[in-house]
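User: Let's play a game. I give you a shape written as tokens, and you guess the letters that built it. Ready? Here's round one.
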């Protein structure tokens, strides 16, 4: 991907105020008891985003203390507010909003009653933004066999270190915990973001944000967020890319409950500097009839791919090259009394190049009857790493790391800007408003 200069602060502010996002979310949370006397709720949401743009509330207060700057901000905000059905304009004589007042509103936004509504509303309207810029739409692009990158979502978790260390008595972040991730042990809050993006510069939309509540169960939080996004976007999404946090049970849930193809690597059984080894899972026997004679093949999965197998002279199992993926099919699993399917079943067609006559073997990637645990969905991939299409989708994962580093750049000395996980999730959501508004603005141009 081409490196580019990030949009200027002024462009980001323009986008934030012009985009419907702050107005639509404010309209959802305002009836739930949130009132603000002098400044509309949408402006408070924008203020939270502006804090991320200026690095801290104090810096933003200092900026807005200039009468000219404040008047410009009010003018920009109002220009956007009158364009949207849900927009609430601000009194042109309103005094500058100060971070003290914002913190008061923030307490409501992050309260037990309101926060879930706020985050659901963020997801609802961010999916709309994504679809308005041509992402995760039911538009006929891609197929089950070749999911389109624009209809693929991806995510990752990142541990944000707390504002104060363990030693700072009295101001300790009681929500922070020690997390062990692939990048080592870190003390803090593990935040998760789900996103989608187009190939154009700056065309990224963050769809859901959350926090890992059970240490070591990041994947469960990721699945919860993906479920939320899917509840809005449905089959606009064809595939999900996630890192190593997913195991068989998560693959099984996303495939069978949501009908999504999961793209990620397989956990190695052993690894050292030189090589990784993978478990070998026997799938069973697939037969075909050639000129009246039965011929059977024992198929085995390793590192996500299906292989044909033979025994050598000493009785050792020898695997063929990975079999070429031919097609992925998905079936609605009937059974409910209503129209809705009771989940989904996938089947993977691979070409078995038998010297007598090649044929297609259809293989279930799901947990098998009588199987203990989720060994098959853990080890078999509908689009394995060896497949030529794998990288087209898996490459999106790099953007998750850009999201993490982009967000952390807005934090002073790489530490959370607020105490407690609720405020930190709000901070991440607020920053996401800037990202999503910029994507929306770029698509207007
Ligand atoms: Zn054969």
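Assistant: Ready! My guess for every position:
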């Amino acid at each position: 991907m081409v490196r580019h200069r990030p949009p200027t602060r002024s462009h980001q502010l323009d986008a934030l105020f012009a985009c419907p996002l702050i107005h639509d979310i404010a309209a959802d949370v305002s009836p739930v008891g949130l009132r603000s006397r002098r400044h509309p709720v949408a402006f408070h949401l924008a203020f939270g985003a502006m804090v991320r743009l200026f690095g801290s509330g104090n810096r933003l207060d200092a900026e807005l203390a200039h009468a000219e700057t404040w008047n410009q901000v009010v003018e920009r905000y109002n220009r956007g507010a009158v364009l949207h059905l849900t927009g609430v304009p601000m009194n042109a004589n309103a005094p500058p909003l100060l971070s003290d007042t914002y913190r008061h509103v923030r307490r409501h936004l992050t309260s037990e009653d309101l926060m879930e509504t706020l985050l659901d509303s963020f997801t609802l309207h961010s999916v709309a933004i994504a679809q308005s810029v041509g992402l995760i739409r039911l538009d006929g692009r891609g197929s089950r066999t070749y999911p389109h990158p624009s209809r693929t979502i991806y995510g990752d978790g990142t541990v944000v270190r707390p504002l104060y260390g363990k030693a700072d008595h009295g101001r300790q972040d009681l929500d922070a915990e020690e997390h062990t991730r692939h990048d080592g042990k870190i003390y803090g809050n593990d935040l998760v973001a789900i996103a989608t993006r187009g190939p154009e510069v700056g065309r990224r939309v963050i769809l859901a944000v959350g926090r890992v509540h059970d240490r070591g169960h990041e994947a469960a939080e990721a699945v919860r967020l993906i479920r939320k996004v899917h509840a809005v976007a449905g089959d606009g999404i064809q595939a999900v890319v996630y890192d190593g946090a997913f195991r068989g049970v998560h693959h099984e849930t996303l495939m069978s409950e949501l009908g999504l193809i999961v793209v990620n690597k397989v956990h190695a059984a052993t690894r050292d500097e030189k090589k990784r080894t993978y478990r070998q899972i026997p799938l069973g026997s697939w037969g075909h009839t050639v000129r009246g004679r039965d011929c059977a093949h024992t198929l085995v999965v390793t590192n996500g791919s299906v292989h044909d197998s033979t025994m050598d002279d000493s009785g050792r199992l020898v695997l063929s090259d990975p079999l070429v993926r031919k097609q992925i099919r998905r079936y609605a699993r009937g059974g409910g009394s209503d129209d809705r399917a009771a989940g989904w079943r996938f089947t993977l067609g691979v070409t078995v190049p038998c010297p007598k006559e090649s044929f297609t073997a259809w293989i279930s990637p799901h947990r098998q009857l009588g199987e203990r645990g989720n060994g098959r969905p853990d080890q078999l991939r509908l689009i394995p790493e060896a497949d030529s299409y794998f990288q087209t989708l898996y490459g999106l994962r790099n953007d998750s790391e850009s999201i993490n580093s982009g967000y952390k750049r807005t934090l002073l000395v790489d530490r959370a800007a607020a105490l407690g996980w609720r405020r930190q999730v709000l901070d991440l959501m607020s920053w996401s408003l800037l990202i999503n508004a910029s994507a929306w603005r770029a698509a207007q141009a």
